[in-house]
Amino acid sequence: MFIFISVGAGHIHLLHSCKNLFSGGMFSCSRLARIIALQGRTVHLHAANRFPLADDLTVTKDHRSEYLELQRLTRWERLIKPFNEAAVMVRRPAVEIIHLIKHTNFDHLALKYVVFGRKGSGKTMTLNHVIHYCHNAGWLIAHVHSANNLNLKNKYDFIDSSSHEGMYDQPITSTDWLKQFKLRNEAFLKQLKTSERYVWNKREATDKDEPLIAVLEQGITRPKNATDVVGVILRELRLQSFNKEFKMLFAIKAMNGLFAHETAFRKTGGYIIPVEELTLHMHFKKFLEGNWINGSIVTSVDQQFCYKQPNKEYTPFYLLGKKGFDHMDPFIPVFVDNYSEKEFESQMAYYDSKSWIQNENVLTDEGKLYLKKLSERNLQS
Amino acid sequence: MNMAFSSHTLHHGSGVTRRLCLLCKDYFTRNIAITASRHHGSLVSTSLPDVDTEIEKVSVHSLRGKAMRAMQDRLKKRQQMPPSREVKMKDTQVWSDVYPTAATFKWSAVPLSVRMGYPVRRGIPPHKLGNAELMKIPNFLHLTPPAVKKHCAALKELCTDWPAELNSDEVCDKHLPIAMETSDYVFSGPSVRSPKARVVQLKVKLSVLPLDKHARWKLIQLLGKSYDKKTDEICLTADRCPVRKQNQDYAMYLLSVLFHEAHITEPWEETDATEDDMEEYTWDSGQSKANILRVKKRMIETDGNQSQLSEDDICSTEDVEKFKMAYTELCNNPETQDNLASYKSAVLDLVGLKQKTAVDT
């Protein structure tokens, strides 16, 4: 019942850059950066695996607010502060994906994984666990927090696209994405060079062989170009992956949002902008095709926040539809079930150790049984 | 309580009400329940006051008391009403003679102390005497089991024997595959014809018809909602003509037209039919094939130990064949965990990770 997860650093220079990220004045605000690597440690499967929150990684007030601005916190992230540590339960789906990633031949096209399961069964945490592994292995991480939310959030954030006629850019959403992408992968972006000259407008352009971070800065300072910048960066990453200089993880939560039909974006006059007309979605979809190597695509399909989409089932074919399924095909479906008996027990034990449960009756056998039956061992319900 | 309530009615009611009450009282004296009512007010409807008690309460000397007593006397002198029918009924009577057909509830013909209606002032529902609520509702007093048996016995003379050869449902379906469903409506009215009786439903199993693969597919497309996939049944409803016979003919005509139309292949069918139109998914024409070829070609290029393969060669390899099966299974059937598991194992096979999946837990 033991599994060995060795999270070694793949490239020395990348590890170094990561260290810089951690110990330097600038704290990486990526959601898993606060988690210390568990290097060469034996981890108990099904047990809450604790990553102590190191002192030098304590989030300062400024960064905290910056982080909050960028992404909505999940329940797990909200618990990091009161628990004073970021603990991840090592569960089968995440271990399975990591195991497959370890054995993947990276010369082949990027392999796709689709995590699916009931609401609250732990899809996001599975994704986070994989991201954490890849982060420690020194991979470049492109992460879309929730594609379903892209269709809902910032619903007044659309302008006519200059590069794609009849389509719409999303300056605020794209800028936010660029910011978190930059905070996470700054070291890579400084090393990678642009492969061609990009002209943004009459006066501004980015020359060939400039660091990719220049393109990114361009997008952050000029939100009007931000969506195009996302496209350019993803394109560069796609093309340069064939040089095998870096490994890359593309992680999307609730990926079915990219294959939805309607969005909450409504133009004056009542025209509802379909997903097909949003350039940001188009760029992500293009990247999702997997025409690049030296990396993996880990996604999840989610019933939550499906805007006007049927969400009765949680299975990938149903949520993606035929079109989305064909887009993703071939992928490896990974099912995340509710907690097993043992996982439930260790979760309760963990909460107990953190004095999180206030009602003492819950910790009795009867109370646990009651809770188990009520929640079907699903954390959310 | 009943008394108090009655006096209330009398004091505040108009002259007409009072008289009505007295009349009622008079009526009841010759009937069954009234003697009990004096002492057990709740047995009688709360809406009918106990008049005798009321009169006794009023002074003998007052004008009102005198008038009430005079009215009482006058009513007593009237010719007595004959006893109601229910009192005269015998145990040996034939009930179907009392209620031979569907008829409104008649209190005097039903020897049951039924009650119905809104109970006034915390009382109980009013009794059956002149109760309009009981008359509003339909009753089945004419449909007692003996009455139904009598009806059946009378109809039996008019029926013919069931053919002995058609002894089971399978035989019936085999020899008489087409079923026509109609409804007859019997009711009393100025005309005995019901417009609803014209509707005809033709039912036939699709498997009974001699169809090839294309004709079957096309017939299903043409039928649309008239075909039930679960039961494999065609159900054509004809109601456009005024007479049933015409509708029957039309339904048969419709079936034959559809049958012959299904056998015709139009030139546009081969070019314009999309994947969604097809009854079953075929892998060879879809996007999935292109995806697999893309992945496979890259694998072959990088591994380098295989010679250049054509598309057909790639498609005929064992792992691609397995993937094709799993994918088609997933598209044509409802998505289940088993389907997804076989799809997963096929993909793992395809990318060469099959032997790596065993995770020690």
TrEMBL record, chain A:
<keyword id="KW-0689">Ribosomal protein</keyword>
<keyword id="KW-0496">Mitochondrion</keyword>
<dbReference type="GO" id="GO:0005763">
    <property type="term" value="C:mitochondrial small ribosomal subunit"/>
</dbReference>
<dbReference type="InterPro" id="IPR008092">
    <property type="entry name" value="Ribosomal_mS29_met"/>
</dbReference>
<dbReference type="InterPro" id="IPR019368">
    <property type="entry name" value="Ribosomal_mS29"/>
</dbReference>
<keyword id="KW-0809">Transit peptide</keyword>
<dbReference type="Pfam" id="PF10236">
    <property type="entry name" value="DAP3"/>
</dbReference>
<keyword id="KW-0687">Ribonucleoprotein</keyword>
<dbReference type="GO" id="GO:0006915">
    <property type="term" value="P:apoptotic process"/>
</dbReference>
<dbReference type="GO" id="GO:0003735">
    <property type="term" value="F:structural constituent of ribosome"/>
</dbReference>
<protein>
    <recommendedName>
        <fullName>Small ribosomal subunit protein mS29</fullName>
    </recommendedName>
</protein>
<comment type="similarity">
    <text>Belongs to the mitochondrion-specific ribosomal protein mS29 family.</text>
</comment>
UniProtKB/TrEMBL annotation, chain B:
<dbReference type="GO" id="GO:0032543">
    <property type="term" value="P:mitochondrial translation"/>
</dbReference>
<dbReference type="Pfam" id="PF10213">
    <property type="entry name" value="MRP-S28"/>
</dbReference>
<dbReference type="InterPro" id="IPR039848">
    <property type="entry name" value="Ribosomal_mS35_mt"/>
</dbReference>
<keyword id="KW-0689">Ribosomal protein</keyword>
<dbReference type="InterPro" id="IPR019349">
    <property type="entry name" value="Ribosomal_mS35_mit"/>
</dbReference>
<feature type="domain" description="Small ribosomal subunit protein mS35 mitochondrial conserved">
    <location>
        <begin position="194"/>
        <end position="264"/>
    </location>
</feature>
<protein>
    <submittedName>
        <fullName>Putative 28S ribosomal protein S35, mitochondrial isoform X3</fullName>
    </submittedName>
</protein>
<dbReference type="GO" id="GO:0003735">
    <property type="term" value="F:structural constituent of ribosome"/>
</dbReference>
<keyword id="KW-0687">Ribonucleoprotein</keyword>
<dbReference type="GO" id="GO:0005763">
    <property type="term" value="C:mitochondrial small ribosomal subunit"/>
</dbReference>
